[in-house]
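One thing: mind reviewing this one?
=====
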Amino acid sequence: MRNRDTIEFLGLWESLHNQDFKPVEFDGFRKEAGLNAFTMSPNEADVLNVALFGITAKQWREENTSMKGNMRDFATLNQLLVLANMESYNAILIEQDKSQAERVQLLHQLAISQLKAIEEIGTINIKKLQKK
């Protein structure tokens, strides 16, 4: 929960959904968060895209020529949450020397199970961070 991407995500979530959110106080947490050491190549990004969305970024752009941005800009909150988890799991699979095909299959299974779990819980039941 201390890596920079997680802290940035929580800050964005709170700014969108918590009218009492204090961005100045939050900056202290953001500055203390560690930097992520893993840098993802475009080929690795497409492994995650295929596992979660079923298509590559190029395929999405070709099918959505009128839309500005990329496919992740149009992802749901649940998909973005699962995507963050998939990035970590993909790094573990790479460390385990899993082939790309095997990683796509395992990541797809993870995406399905996590999306299903999030939908069962429902985001309404996730409480906002309490101010102190």
Summary: The first helix runs from residue 4 to 17.
